[in-house]
Amino acid sequence: MDEAASSILRRRPELRRLSKTALARELVSKVPDADHPFRTRRQFDDWFASSATASRLPTQLAQVSRRGQQKVHISRRIAYPPYSFQIDVTIVRPKSPVSRRDRFLLMVEVNSRKAFAEVLSGNTASETTDAYERLMHNRILPEIPLFEGEDNSLKGRLEHVWVVVGDAFFDNAAFKRLNDDWHVLTSTVVAEEEHKSLHGNPLGIVDSLTRTLKTLLRHEREARIQDGKGKRESDDWPSYLQSVVDQYNSMPHSSLGRQTPEAMFCDRYELAKIYGERSTHNSIARQ
């Protein structure tokens, strides 16, 4: 059974990107066959925890504990050059009673942690790509600082955008075509399910930001209710999403010391310094 599972991993290396739960769904079946060597989840868990397996699976990279002995690894950090972005779609509950909208497009610059958001009218590829284009045109590109003599046109500012990283949702023709026209590099294969891969959570920055913004939105809703505003107005989160994002961007961030995402985004020297420090850290982690 162990050898059969190991054989599947060798034959299908893409499975190594999955989280433990997702991998179990791939390998466990009530009717075992060549692609499903385990009949029960318990059998899978025993195999997953075995010493022969632990050194090869993604969730074991950061820390491994087996039979009282502990093996500690240096975790790697997400490192991209300045003006690299992670992108995701965030769902908000409850729906806005005014616009009936329940999601927004979220982008975050990896080094500064600055957030950008655009309310979505739907969840199709074309609607999401349109929102992405508006966000780039109206918010992100105008805020990228330029040195004297640098090209201030759309094309010139796009040259500073290094990469946009998202999950498989953005692996569609409309999104690819727009970025190809802009000559912006995209990556949509870093994470397949639950944003997990061989190296942990490659979209961890945007996932963490999602949780933070949802908390801030909830606090804003509660504050509006306490101020005597009606439920309909308090639940209309699209009307105050931008003010919540601005609030986040103006708060000191734990990964930036005493700096705010807003200030850090405008400092190209500091962004380059952060990228260099994370790259050095990862070089040591690989040793």
Describe this structure in words.
Helix content is 43%, strand content 12%. The protein is an alpha/beta fold and 287 residues long. The protein has two domains: 71 residues, no CATH class; 202 residues, Ribonuclease H-like superfamily/Ribonuclease H (Nucleotidyltransferase, domain 5, 2-Layer Sandwich). The strands form two sheets. It has a five-stranded mixed β-sheet with strand order 5-4-3-6-7, sandwiched between helices. Strands 1-2 form a two-stranded antiparallel sheet. A hairpin with a 2-residue loop joins strand 1 and strand 2. It is globular. The protein starts with a helix and ends with a helix.
Describe how the helices and strands are arranged.
Layout: H1 2-11, H2 20-27, H3 41-49, H4 51-54, E1 63-66, E2 69-72, E3 84-91, E4 103-109, E5 115-119, H5 125-143, H6 154-158, E6 163-165, H7 173-182, E7 185-187, H8 204-226, H9 231-234, H10 241-249, H11 261-265, H12 268-285
Parallel strand pairs: 3-6, 6-7
Antiparallel strand pairs: 1-2, 3-4, 4-5
Helix pairs in contact: 5-7, 8-10
Descriptive labels:
globular, alpha/beta, single chain, 7 strands, 2 domains, two-stranded antiparallel ribbon, 12 helices, 5-stranded mixed beta sheet, 287 residues
Question: How far apart are the first and last residues' alpha carbons, in Å?
Answer: 33 Å
Number of strands: 7
Largest beta sheet, briefly? Answer: 5 strands, mixed
Bulk shape: globular
Radius of gyration: 22 Å
Strand order of the largest sheet: 5-4-3-6-7
- Helix-strand string: HHHHEEEEEHHEHEHHHHH
Structural class by helix and strand composition? alpha/beta
Number of helices: 12
CATH superfamily of the largest domain: Ribonuclease H-like superfamily/Ribonuclease H
Overall pLDDT = 80
CATH architecture field of the largest domain = 2-Layer Sandwich
Q: What is the helix fraction of residues, given as a range?
A: 40-55%
Whole-number tally of structural domains? 2
Strand content: 5-15%
CATH class of the largest domain: Alpha Beta
